[in-house]
């Protein structure tokens, strides 16, 4: 996949491509990236790339000129052009999967208050929000979007690693443990030491259901659960109810 990032702060983005799993993906040729500073297309002694908003208001808006010229220089029209913004569509795992199937993606990093709407209308195909909060820079949001999608490309990480992780089957991930067996008075759950594959799978499945119910109950209505998993969920709910009843009674 070819990734192009247009930014006023290349130094914020570059390190991501030089470390860890992304570094390996680049070395293997799975990811090709280029980072373009669109200030290079700005004019005047100060190479101004942003200006005050028409109609008044706080902050600065990225001017259409320099960014449009940068986009034209890479023939962005016809490509999938992503603009991370808090007013975009929410990034989900399914959205990341759809982006991971593209051969080429272009990212525009906003900064300050925003990007002139005419640039969005002319070039942007995807306005994406990474969550209901506001960051000070589009660079960090761009890295989040790229991180969520590139790991799904074949060859970047082992496919088994993707199977049980959070959001696969619409559930959160089960807890993980490693050596030592005992740490600060806490031991690893015994079932994980039995070597009994089906018991471990069952335990992990229960943990995923319980964790999702506790942290993200909103996910359960869309999760693809088998009849068996639905029954397990009911019994977890029952156990929770009994624990809750015991607690209420003990407080009376
Ligand atoms: N830029 C600033 N905040 C953002 C957010 N929540 N999502 C995407 N881009 C952003």
UniProtKB/TrEMBL annotation:
Entry keyword set: Cytoplasm, Methyltransferase, S-adenosyl-L-methionine, Transferase, tRNA processing
Top-level division of the source organism's lineage: Bacteria
Domain (tRNA methyltransferase TRMD/TRM10-type) ranges: 1-221
GO function terms (MF aspect): tRNA (guanine(37)-N1)-methyltransferase activity
Main localization, broad class: cytoplasm
Coiled-coil region: none
Subunit-structure text: Homodimer.
Function comment: Specifically methylates guanosine-37 in various tRNAs.
Protein's UniProt name: tRNA (guanine-N(1)-)-methyltransferase
